[in-house]
Input
Amino acid sequence: MPQPVIYDDILILAEHPFRGWQRVEPDWQPDDPYKVRVELVLLIGIPEQPGYDTFYAMVSTPSGVLSAEEHDALPRWIERGKLLIRRWHWSELRAFLEATVSSCRGPTAEDAMAVVRGYFRWEYDGLPDRWGVGRV
Output
């Protein structure tokens, strides 16, 4: 059964109040790890097939919006392409993303990638996908 993987490093873009979105390194530490909003760019594909697709996810902390019970269920996907985390901790987030992607399986590569598109925004959103099965 085909299993997607994340290729290369994940690009992390952090929002700077005056300069807009800036690329940061994985060892970046925000001023407040409980007040974070970043955009991730992931290259995901099937190892047995050439190439990969580009996917995006907005990752944010709740900043006190959620109740204590809801905080216990973090990290979690709140909608397609949006992930809510308790605090910024890159290695934990990376492990969660890798587990999410590796859980996306299907009888064919196309089916497995369709599951991935259920979690992340896809570079081809709004267009018919390259396999002709339509956008998730």
User: Anything to note?
Assistant: Residues 90-102 form the longest helix (13 residues). DSSP finds three helices and seven strands in the chain.
